[in-house]
Amino acid sequence: VVMADQLTPMASAATAGPASPPTWTASSATRVQSRLETPGYTCLGIEAHSQARDGVRFASAYCNAPLCTPGRYAFVTGRHGSKTGGYDNASYMPSTMPTFAHYLRSHFGYRTAVTGKMHFVGPDQLHGFEERYTTDVYPSDYGWVPDWTRPDERVDLWYHNAGAVVQSGIAAISNQLEYDDEVGAAALRAIYDHARRGEDARPLCLLASFIHPHDPYAARRKYWDLYEDREIPMPTTPRPKPADNDPHSLRLEKAMALDAVDISDADILRARRAYLANASYVDEWLGRLRDALDETGLAEDTSILLIADHGDMLGERGLWYKMSFYEWSVRVPCVLYVPGREDLRGRVVPTEVPVSQVDVLPTLLRLATDAAAAGATPKEDSSVVVELVDAIDGEDLLAIAESGTRVVDSVVAAEYLAEAAPGQPMLMLREGRYKYTTCPGDPDQLFDLVADPNEVDDLAKKKTSSEETTASVLERFRARAKQHWDVDAVRTAVLESQRRRRLLTKALQTGKRQSWDWQPRRDASEEYTRSHHDLTVNDALLRWPRPPPFEPRWR
User: Fold this and answer.
1) How many angstroms separate the CA atoms of 227 and 134, rounded?
2) What is the DSSP string of 287-319?
3) Which of the residues 65, 98, 533, 545 has an alpha carbon 20 to 30 A from that of 461?
């Protein structure tokens, strides 16, 4: 599984250019990459194109919360944040909450490993993963907990601001580039190590989670230059006047202190270019990981899922980053490749059939079940039946691709329970061509995404000849929102969680501080070459493909 951070598939609208753009050479002299012209993947390049060509692409994939930690908790558990406690970026998820890593280990004997950002909060920094090769790039404590009792307060220490936009541009190194270089290198080593373990190795589920193209928008020149002489347009939908804007967008403008600095058109275009450059950086890593699978002979029985935790507004409607239910923020790429499934090759699940992050867990369990049935795992009993501890909210992506529709539930939901919310739970529902948002105290919104992909025509407040039809759609969504959750109970739970975490933060920052940040484990005494190793044997064991046997006459 390859996860990018803050990667919006809507970025194709921000990369206009010739139909056959010039190619460019990535870090490998043998790998020539070009920008992908498939809608929704323009910024990713040839690796995402190859992934989509060989597998199935889901045209309307959503995060289940447009914020890092809540979206990631939904991704690993198959459940919405309101059920797991994944409310915000300082949310604690209990160690007793099963993830796909737990199920793959307990039922199928998988070795589960992760490299990169997970934004787990609390002392459990594994949540079922057997190995974790890097520390996290973000804090593991409760320091970023919001306060719904003071929803208008802005915390300058950790809230987003416009600095990432006005300071965007070229960087030889940055906090995030340094991190993702390590993430990618660790993922490559994990693939090579798995190959070198031999035929008796347990099956591997590897999650490589990159923080790019998340802001700040600072890119290496190598990737920045890919977009030289390319037309990168301004946002399609400009910032509305306050009287014409929706309440949550106004709250986000205040939360990110949008008017604290002047943002010029040059700033916007420079930030968008750096964002696209960083997406190409992630794409290069995807290519290197695919190359490693090919080199080691693992590609023919390795499924690959490309996804993100949430999107980025990139200046649309004057907004940046995430935390919004508008498409640029809440949509994510989702491409699944399964070797041997020629019937899925190049298939596109249409826009009217949405999917989301909670669909990942049942999909991975389906893949493991199919592999077990084919005798591809070391378990003696191949007829594995997974009994889920908790009811999940997602369904198998493979089943959706095979049938062309959602089988269990036609509705996909996203929640927002963090900073800039008005002290009330926010909910988005997507079904068919319509998207609905609701929050106590805010007017409901309803958009027809087929007729109005830029979400400028709010049907919930428009009086037209189709008012009766609109009313019936709204009534159906409102009933479904009540079915999704008890909004008062959720608000009470969020407030209680925030209160507890604020108290614990104050206590844990007083006196001796004990960090929960993950410390990668390594035993240098067994790495590379040591005096207790047989030099010749060790060198052969660490080489792939293995060299022919060395059998001198003196042995």
Assistant:
1) 31
2) HHHHHHHHHTT-GGG--EEEEES----TTGGG-
3) 65
3-state DSSP call for residue 348? strand
User: Does 33 score more than 60 pLDDT?
Assistant: no
Instruction: Tell how far CA 70 is from the center of its chain.
Output: 11
User: From residue 452, how far is each of 91, 234, 245, 438, 472 by CA, in Å?
Assistant: 35, 19, 17, 19, 19
Alpha-carbon gap, residue 198 to 6, rounded angstroms: 36
Amino acid identity of residue 30, one-letter, is: T
C-alpha distances (whole Å) from 135 to each of 32, 78, 125, 407 are 32, 24, 9, 38
Task: Look up tokens 């998988």; give the residue.
Answer: 110
Pairing of the two strands 347-349 and 2-4: unpaired
For 217-367, strand residue ranges (E) read: 218-219, 304-308, 331-332, 334-337, 347-349, 355-356
Chain centroid to Cα 402, Å, comes to 24
Distance CA 498, CA 157 (A): 18
pLDDT tens, position by position, 351-361: 999 999 999 99
Instruction: Give the pLDDT band (50/70/90) at residue 10.
Output: confident
Name the residues annotated as catalytic: 68, 119
* Backbone Cα Rg of the chain: 24
Among residues 524, 531, 552, 529, the alpha carbon closest in space to that of 542 is found at 529
